[in-house]
Every structure is written in structure tokens, then in C-alpha cells.
């Protein structure tokens, strides 16, 4: 009996071994396991315009490390990577998107999958009424104001809410809460390249529209000094005029990082402060450009040349504009060595200057091809067709004239007096260090002044 049981057990064991082997050949290399790729999460169906979307995915199988690449809609493929999630901050409609994802392993095996979703149509339009120009520059530590208007296809214009994101805020980037307010001001802004202000508008129904402004915030290289105070008929500060003049100069200096200084509010900048800037644009506008006190009152003698002379002796660059700046300086006529205007504006010691009130046109001297042929006084700002312009009759070597004085109030081509009312000075024939525009810049056309400034600042190396 025992022997029979033993034989039965032995037979069972052999059958198990045979069944376990089946028909496989264990000495052969098995083919690699394929990759299985699937999207774990991500939008499907219809989402609100302007929404952010996130996709995540996973895979199984494959030989070695599996890597992925992805794209949204008609966008470019990403680089191959081992990440398994991606976020798109905002997608706009109306359109249908397909999110594509591909996987590969070192053995060359691949897999692919995709997901489709729809973004609802744009329900609002955003218009920035105040913002930096695209790709322009703003100065670190300065102030930026944004304002906007919006309209909605569903007539929700008055009920729209907004939120914004800014990456140049003091304290770091942040996204605001939803709010109906249509303006925001940032102070002590921080460096950012690119600087981004992103604005979302949301309807009561939940549709979202997004728009943005991209520019640069960097350390200012130019100090704009407002050296003229506008007063109204009652003797009070004329704030609309003040704001308009400042905006004019900001527009003329568009594309440069500038900081502001207002003489009537802040007094005189000191020598330590001005050395933070490679160029100073000093504006003493109008025929009352000798408003006291001005910086130019402080250079009336060699002993009084403190701040401006110190700045220039430390490699500064100076562009000064105004109708009676030289009248305010007035050391000697003709200027002598040691006088600021002789040393740093290039006026010679054999001739002086004069100032007349029969000035209507700044006529291009022809020394720079892109300089305007002529610019006529803006009567709306000037109040008259005629203004002051200081004439310079004699220069030291290495000066280049920008404009000469012209006059015509009949609408004909201006009479050309051939007397310089604007120049650049290259001390000793070297690099440009100073420029004078000896008329009321603010009363001239913006585009002409913008091009004039660009020519001068390019010579300064800005």
C-alpha cells in the first residue's frame, strides 16, 4: 500500500514539472514589455475662457527610464523630459484644443495619447488706458500706474470684476483678489526682465478674458530733472500743466529707464545722488526757464559750480533744455576758461550768446540724417507763435550743431538765421559729454523732440 502511494506521488510530481514548463524555451530572451501611457488628470468638455489648465500623466512598462514630450494645440513640442505634469496659466477661446503626450524608453519603444477640450468664446475686451509701452523700460524703485477699461458682449460692462498678477511688486509676485476696481498703482517697483502685468476680466456668468503688458524694470541710467514750475492765474501750482509736461518728457524718453526729480518739490539733488546716473536730462522749459531757484543759479561762478561740475568731472553726461538757461548761468560774456559753460558746454572765449524773442522754428542743421528738418512751435502749448531762443555765436572745437533758429509766422518756409540754438559738445574731440537745446522743448512736436533726444543719448552711449 505504501509503495502504491509513493508511485502515485512521484507521477503527480512529474506531471507538475511538465505542466510548469509548458512549451516555453527559458533559454531564449523575451521581447521587452511595451509602454502603456495614460492621462491621469486634465480638462475635458468645455472650460471658461482664460482659465488655467493642468495635465498629469503616468506610464507602465518600458525598459529603463521613460521620458515624455507634450504640446498643446498647434504649439511646439516640448523637450523630452521625465516630468509627469504641466500647467498652462491661461488658455483663450473660442477654440478646441488637443493636448498630445508621447512617451519613449531607451529601447526605442513609444506610446502616445491625447485629450481634447473646448474653451468658451471671449466674452470681454480689455483696453489699457494707462500702462508702460510694450517692451519699454521702467526704473527700479519708481512708481507705475495701470488703469483699464473693459466691455462685455453680454452687456455686463459695469458688473465685470478684475484681478491681476504682477511680478515686479515690492515683496514678490502675487495675484490679487477679484475686484471691480479698474486702476492700481505700484510703488518701489523691483527689477524684472521681463516684467509682466497680467489682467483678467470676469463676467457675472463666470466667463474670463485675459490681457497683459510686458516690459522691463531695471536700474535707471537717466535722471530727468523738472526745473520749471507752472503756475495758474491765481499763483497756485498748475497741476494739469505739470502732469502734461512730465508725461511729454516721459514720452520723449520712451525706451529708456528714467528716474524723476522735481526741483520745486525736492530742492536740488546732491552730488552723491546724481552720480547714480550716467546721464541727466535737465528741463528748464519756457521763456521763464530762469525760474529761481534752479540748478543754473548755482553755477553763476566757479566757486558755485559744486554739483554740476562734480557730476561732469566724474564722467557724467548732461542734456539741458530751456529757452533761457544761459541767461540764468551768466558768468562772463564772452565765457572764459573756468566758467561752467566754457568748460562743459563748449562755448568759446571769443564770442558769447544772445537771446531773442523772434523764434518760431527750430531748423535742422543737417548734421544728423534722422534729425527733423524743422520743428514749429505748438501754439496750443506756447500760447503764441513766437518764443525765446538763445543764440550761440561761437563754440570751442568739437561741437556739432543740431538746430539753428528760424522765423516765419505767415505759414511760409521759415527764414533760416543760421545761428545755433542746439548743439552737442565733444570735449577735446573725444566722446560726447553735453548737449544744449536752447529753446522751449515742451512747446515743440513730440516726435521731433523724441528723435532729437535719441540722437543725443546715442552719442552719450545710452
Describe the protein.
This protein is 17% helix and 36% strand. The protein has 462 residues and is α+β, with helices and mostly antiparallel strands. A nine-stranded mixed β-sheet has the order 17-16-18-19-26-25-24-21-22. Strands 9-15-14-11-12 form a five-stranded mixed β-sheet, with no helix packed on it. Strand 14 and strand 15 form a beta hairpin. The longest helix has 20 residues.
Overall number of domains: 3
Give the averaged pLDDT, no decimals. 83
Tell me the structural class: alpha+beta
Strand order in space, largest sheet = 17-16-18-19-26-25-24-21-22
Report the CATH topology name of the largest domain.
Answer: Rossmann fold
Ordered list of secondary-structure elements with their pairings:
Elements: H1 2-21, E1 36-41, E2 45-47, E3 53-60, E4 67-72, E5 85-88, E6 95-104, E7 110-119, E8 124-130, E9 137-139, E10 144-152, E11 161-166, E12 174-175, E13 183-186, E14 192-202, E15 208-218, E16 222-226, H2 239-252, E17 258-262, H3 263-266, H4 271-274, E18 279-284, H5 306-313, E19 317-322, H6 325-329, H7 340-345, E20 353-359, E21 361-364, E22 374-376, H8 379-382, E23 387-392, E24 399-407, E25 415-425, E26 434-437, H9 446-459
Parallel strand pairs: 2-7, 9-15, 16-17, 16-18, 18-19, 19-26
Antiparallel strand pairs: 1-3, 3-5, 4-6, 6-7, 8-10, 10-13, 11-12, 11-14, 14-15, 20-23, 21-22, 21-24, 24-25, 25-26
Task: Characterize this entry briefly.
By secondary structure, the chain is α+β, with helices and mostly antiparallel strands. The chain folds into 3 domains: 36-119, Immunoglobulins (Immunoglobulin-like, Sandwich); 124-218, Immunoglobulin-like; 222-459, 3-Layer(aba) Sandwich (Rossmann fold), CATH 3.40.50. The chain has helices at 2-21, 239-252, 263-266, 271-274, 306-313, 325-329, 340-345, 379-382, 446-459; strands at 36-41, 45-47, 53-60, 67-72, 85-88, 95-104, 110-119, 124-130, 137-139, 144-152, 161-166, 174-175, 183-186, 192-202, 208-218, 222-226, 258-262, 279-284, 317-322, 353-359, 361-364, 374-376, 387-392, 399-407, 415-425, 434-437.
Amino acid at each position: 500500500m505504501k509503495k502504491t502511494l509513493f508511485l502515485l506521488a512521484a507521477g503527480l510530481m512529474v506531471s507538475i514539472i511538465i505542466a510548469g514548463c509548458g512549451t516555453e524555451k527559458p533559454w531564449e530572451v523575451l521581447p521587452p514589455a511595451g509602454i502603456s501611457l495614460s492621462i491621469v488628470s486634465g480638462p475635458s468638455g468645455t472650460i471658461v475662457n482664460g482659465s488655467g489648465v493642468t495635465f498629469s500623466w503616468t506610464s507602465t512598462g518600458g525598459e529603463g527610464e521613460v521620458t515624455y514630450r507634450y504640446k498643446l494645440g498647434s504649439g511646439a513640442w516640448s523637450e523630452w523630459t521625465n516630468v509627469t505634469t504641466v500647467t498652462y496659466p491661461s488658455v483663450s477661446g473660442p477654440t478646441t484644443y488637443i493636448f498630445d503626450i508621447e512617451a519613449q524608453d531607451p529601447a526605442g519603444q513609444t506610446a502616445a495619447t491625447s485629450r481634447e477640450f473646448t474653451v468658451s468664446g471671449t466674452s470681454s475686451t480689455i483696453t489699457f488706458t494707462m500702462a508702460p509701452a510694450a517692451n519699454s523700460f521702467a526704473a527700479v524703485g519708481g512708481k507705475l500706474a495701470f488703469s483699464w477699461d473693459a466691455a462685455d458682449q453680454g452687456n455686463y460692462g459695469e458688473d465685470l470684476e478684475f484681478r491681476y498678477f504682477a511680478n515686479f511688486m515690492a515683496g514678490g509676485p502675487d495675484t490679487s483678489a477679484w475686484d471691480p476696481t479698474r486702476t492700481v498703482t505700484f510703488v518701489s517697483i523691483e527689477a524684472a526682465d521681463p516684467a509682466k502685468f497680467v489682467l483678467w476680466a470676469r463676467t457675472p456668468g463666470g466667463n474670463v478674458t485675459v490681457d497683459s503688458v510686458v516690459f522691463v524694470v531695471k536700474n535707471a541710467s537717466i535722471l530727468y530733472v523738472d526745473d520749471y514750475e507752472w503756475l495758474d492765474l491765481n499763483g497756485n501750482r498748475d497741476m494739469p500743466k505739470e502732469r502734461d509736461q512730465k508725461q511729454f518728457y516721459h514720452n520723449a524718453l520712451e525706451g529708456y529707464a528714467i528716474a524723476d526729480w522735481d526741483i520745486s518739490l525736492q530742492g536740488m539733488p546732491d552730488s552723491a545722488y546724481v552720480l547714480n546716473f550716467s546721464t541727466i536730462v535737465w528741463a528748464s522749459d519756457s521763456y521763464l526757464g530762469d525760474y529761481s531757484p534752479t540748478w543754473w543759479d548755482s553755477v553763476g561762478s566757479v566757486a558755485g559750480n559744486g554739483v554740476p561740475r562734480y557730476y561732469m568731472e566724474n564722467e557724467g553726461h548732461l542734456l539741458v533744455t530751456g529757452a533761457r538757461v544761459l541767461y540764468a548761468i551768466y558768468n562772463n560774456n564772452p565765457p572764459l576758461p573756468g566758467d561752467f559753460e566754457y568748460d562743459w558746454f563748449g562755448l568759446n572765449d571769443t564770442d558769447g550768446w544772445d537771446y531773442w524773442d523772434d523764434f518760431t522754428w527750430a531748423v535742422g542743421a543737417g548734421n544728423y540724417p534722422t534729425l527733423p528738418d524743422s520743428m514749429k512751435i505748438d501754439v496750443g502749448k506756447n500760447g503764441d507763435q513766437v518764443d525765446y531762443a538763445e543764440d550761440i555765436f561761437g563754440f570751442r572745437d568739437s561741437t556739432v550743431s543740431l538746430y539753428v533758429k528760424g522765423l516765419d509766422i505767415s505759414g511760409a518756409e521759415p527764414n533760416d538765421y543760421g545761428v545755433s540754438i542746439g548743439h552737442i559738445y565733444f570735449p577735446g574731440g573725444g566722446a560726447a559729454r553735453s548737449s544744449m537745446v536752447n529753446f522751449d522743448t515742451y512747446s515743440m512736436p513730440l516726435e521731433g523732440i523724441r528723435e532729437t533726444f535719441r540722437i543725443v543719448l546715442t552719442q552719450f552711449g545710452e
